[in-house]
Amino acid sequence: MLVGSACGLILASAAQAQVRTFDVPAGDLQKALDAYGAQSGVQLIYRSADLRGLQTKGVRGPIDQAQALERLLADSDLVAQRQASGAQAIIKAPRRPQGPSADAAILEPQLLSELVVTGTRIRGAGPVGSNLISISRRDIEASGYATTQQIVQALPQNYGGGPNDSTMYGTGRNGSSANLAAGSAINLRGLGASSTLVLLNGSRPPMGGRTGVFADISLVPSTAIERIEVLADGASALYGSDAVAGVVNVIFRDRFEGLSTQLRYGGAKGGAEEAQAGLLAGKTWSGGHVVVGYEVARRDALAASKRSYATSDLRPFGGPDYRSIYASPGTIVAGGQTFAIPAGQNGVALRPDQLIRGVTNKEDGLLDTDILPRQTRQALYVSADQNLGKKTNIFVQALLADRRFSFRTPTGSQSAVTVPVANPFYLDPIGTHQPVRVQYSFVRDLGPNIYSGHVRAYDLTGGLRRSFGSWSATARVGYGRQEEATLIKNYVNTYRLGLALADINPATAYNVFGDARSTPAATINSIRGFASSDSVYKAWSADVKADGPLFALPAGEARLAVGAEHRDERYRYDSFNDISAATPRASSLLLPGPRQIDAAFAELLVPLVDETMAVPGVRQLKVSLAGRIERYSDFGTTSNPKVGLDWEPVEGLVLKSAYGTSFRAPSFNDMRQGVGSTLYQPAPLSDPNSPTGSTVVLALIGNSPDIGPERAKTWTSTAEWKPAFAPGVKLTTSYFRVKYRDRIASINGDIFNALINRAAYSALLTDTPAASVVAGYYASPYFSNPSNIPASSVKVIVDARVQNLAIVNQDGLDVDIDYRRALGGGQINLGLAATYTFRVEQAVTENSAKVDTVGTVGSPVKLRWRARAGWTQGGFDAAAFVNFVDGYRNQTVTPNEHVDAWTTVDLTLGYRFTGGRADGLRASLAVANLFDRDPPYVNLRTSSSGIGFDSDNANPLGRTIAIQLAKSW
Fold it and tell me: What Rg value do the Cα atoms of the chain yield, rounded?
């Protein structure tokens, strides 16, 4: 298996022997093996305890890389064992005891043969047909990033749109509105965070967001990560739901030995100061091991006022003015005219002639807000295992995380208020002596909305592993729970505001005719409201898996993995608000009951040809077949196959291809039915085919009762080449194609165009419906008719319910170029990882016209790449990265506007001390966005006002500088 990385260094297995030029000095064996891995590109896996205190004579000059590794291990009791995945496992050489008990001797358990790589369920194998990206511990350190989400989001295959803490408010695109608690998700290919499966050590974590729709990777401590494996290919045949765009598997440092501590401090201009501390400890004893990792981190908020483009007034950039019409002082609306209230007065004795006729006062909707929240997090990871006899091993893993956040958000309660004549500050600009409407902002009175929250997550897994000859079986049970509590303060309670506006006492009445805070503080406090929510996602799981050789073939053993799984998922959401009534009100989201999932899977790996068979044009050929059946208690059964092929026609070139189907199960919210989620309502819609210009329709709103899973077909083809004429070079190119159908969506957001775009929505329109059908809807308890439209007037039924509706077709190319060699007594590595998306065709329905959205707002850009250059010599290391995001089109404005490309540079410098009291200390400096490049200007209208940059494709931090100290004890 060839393992590529798009971030930092690449760990690659050697598919065959190769001569390389090595420069590995004599000395500490562990450091020598690290240097060997960097110079050869071979993935080495070892236990630190096995290497402690061992020395080596080193190796220099051109030599076969397998022989070079043997020389490094020559003076030890260690040997290299090549895994089926291509990695080299460094283990203690088996020793045969002397005497009569020799035949019964039990060799040291070769734990590394239990290695299961993402993309396969077979031990020691790699994913056949698919390209696996591996971000190693070394990559993480070289990147200079502090958090797990930063590490993964640097991948070109990941799209920044969707749930993350920089998209908390705005348009709600790509499911970001489901991000209740400022979490961070992974969105491979831009197909949605819920279409990327995240695993922790191969297990599903508890889910976050509204109704549990994404895995919150902000809760994963980066200190405890060994590597991150990314399979950007459909994999429901192996893992089930959500693995449409791919799988991201976080592997923890479960074999760590010793004690390591880490401190980090940094920040950006104007805010976002960060601090992080971590500890990792591991201990091995006879037949057992334990690892404990703890990390605490904090990042301060970044105020919108600290970034010039974080404003709703885009006129300085040549754009429009999106400032809110609600301001303080406000604007009186009377007789269809506007009258701006002058500033610099308190609304007492204000005269009509002082008002500014035909003018509207405006206020920046981003006033006193934050574009990044304050985040504080702590996480504890524990992993332990123990042998029970000769063939049995028990293990347990636990991740406990706690995260709190807070930031100032745009107000969600702006609306014009009606001031009655009895109000002591009442002013009528046109003399009608009728109540007047005032467009007034309460932000300066109450203060900005403060959105805060608390997240707790518990992820527990335990199990037993037992060998049966050459077969191994594992049984696991797990429990996951994620709690999210949120609170929004400084809302306007409209009920109590109405009472304060009707108050005739000038000492206690609310005054909206002057500058902010013209009203007594006690009255302001009386209208202060809030909204809160409390949600819990829980999941129980149990699974059993076995794998081993099935039969022998001339090219090797065919291997089989089989397993069965059960999950029980539940979600609860309660809200409590003090916004529109005299006293706070509680409510619950009516969701379906517990969901049970039962699954069975099988995977077969068959080696057809190897190099010893001397088949012309085929050095190696192997095929894998996988399939999975899942039964959901709420919508039925789905089955998904996958087939993969690896072909090595000549030495150094491997061609891979895979085809499979994948699916995403509907969320709890998608399955809601009944009161609060269903509405039938008649209304007139514009209709160019009607003589009157409009037609009365009956709109069906809510969720379709027969909603099912989203389904996809995925293809990938990969070429991996290590040219013999260019030692140290590795080229990887992957073509991907996704045909995604039955995507869960509705046309409710575009229902006013339903009759204008009849061709696009024809499948959702029922013309001249039968009277009995219309009567049935009119008799429904979910029917609403505020305009008193008779049933006889309904001419069309528009099905605007959430249902399996939309389709997406996407294809593109992933490229990774890697070069490394010894140079001048050190090691140099150069590389480029890039993703080029050819198209993202979307259609509202299967019969609708397809629109290519690639390179537009809300979709992935055409081209994204990350170049890397690294240098190590002795204890010094340096790495530089260039990040490029292609320009794209802003189709949300007319005429469309071009958004410039964005290029940033990251730099890390480090030094590892040896000897003396500083032995094992690494000091590093990390600078992100070295040249402090602002995000490109984008004219964006948001749900509350507007803003001048696109958080889907850029972050507003600017240059950040951090220093880090890591010490091995």
Answer: 31
Burial 8-38 (b: 16+ CB within 10 A, else e): bbbbbbbbeebebebbbeeebbbbbbbbbbb
pLDDT digits (tens, 9 = 90+) for 485-543: 999 999 999 999 999 999 999 999 999 999 999 999 999 999 999 999 999 999 999 99
Cα angle, residue 249 at apex, residues 243 and 254 outer, rounded to 5°? 155
11: domain range?
A: 1-98+105-111
CATH of the domain at 15: 3.55.50.30
18 lies in some domain: yes
Closest CA to 173 of 834, 710, 860: 860
Give residue-wise pLDDT tens across range 221-252. 999 999 999 999 999 999 999 999 999 999 99
Q: What torsion do the CA atoms of 690, 694, 695, 696 make, to the nearest 10 degrees?
A: -170
Q: Which residues are paired to 558 by β-bridges?
A: 551
Question: How confident is the model over 571-592, as pLDDT tens digits?
Answer: 999 999 999 999 999 998 888 8
Q: In this structure, what token pair is assigned to residue 165?
A: 């803490």
Distance linking the first and last C-alpha atoms of the chain: 34
Residue 46 lies in a domain: yes
Helical (H) or strand (E) element with 696? strand 694-701
Q: Using CA atoms, how far apart are residues 798 and 751, in angstroms rounded to an integer?
A: 8
Q: CB neighbours (10 Å) of residue 91?
A: 22
Helical segments of 111-214, H only: 137-143, 148-153
Residue 234 makes CB contacts below 8 A (sequence gap 6+) with 243, 244, 245, 246, 642, 660, 661, 662, 712, 713, 714, 738
For residues 156 and 189, give the distance between their C-alpha atoms in angstroms, rounded to a whole number: 9
What per-residue confidence (pLDDT) applies to 169? 64
- pLDDT in the model for residue 639: 97
Centroid of chain to Cα 383: 25
Is pLDDT of 106 > 80? no
Residue 47 forms part of a structural domain: yes
Per the domain annotation, does 320 fall within a domain? no
Q: Are 668 and 635 contacting, i.e. CB atoms less than 8 angstroms apart?
A: no
What are the pLDDT digits (tens) for 159-179?
998 899 888 766 667 788 889
Report CA-CA distances (Å) from 797 to 303, 747, 787.
47, 13, 17
Average pLDDT over residues 289-297: 97
Q: How many domains does the chain have?
A: 1
Maximum average pLDDT range among 153-167, 388-402, 936-950: 388-402
pTM of the model: 0.86
